[in-house]
Amino acid sequence: MKSILIIEDDATVAEAVSFVLERNGYETTHVETGSRASELLKKQHFCGALIDVWLGSEDGLDVLARLRADGNTLPVVIMSGGGPGHTLESVSTRADVLDACAVLFKPFTDEELLDAVNRSCPDDSCAAD
Fold this sequence. Notes:
Elements: E1 2-7, H1 11-23, E2 26-31, H2 34-43, E3 48-52, E4 54-55, E5 58-59, H3 60-69, E6 76-80, H4 88-97, E7 102-105, H5 110-120
Parallel strand pairs: 1-2, 1-3, 3-6, 6-7
Antiparallel strand pairs: 4-5
């Protein structure tokens, strides 16, 4: 089963995303911070990750930048509702520079979520052990 890491500080959003993914054959793990995600990625294999831009006091794009700086090539989908300093255009541009597979703008549909994750994790070779 493909395992997806969800980095999202809003429990309601994380639960909704998990529900859709699990209903469609994915295994999900949810963390609320980039530091917790970094710890977990050292111990556990994931097929991909969903990272929210607004993580309380953290910026999800900075979390992705740290992962890339550490050499982590995990397929990532960025989730964003926009906001001050994070226009839809700026999020898309920075996500592209950081090699994100896709950007989902909230609110997004179940179909958009599944499409982005399926494109990011296209084969079964990354299934969790």
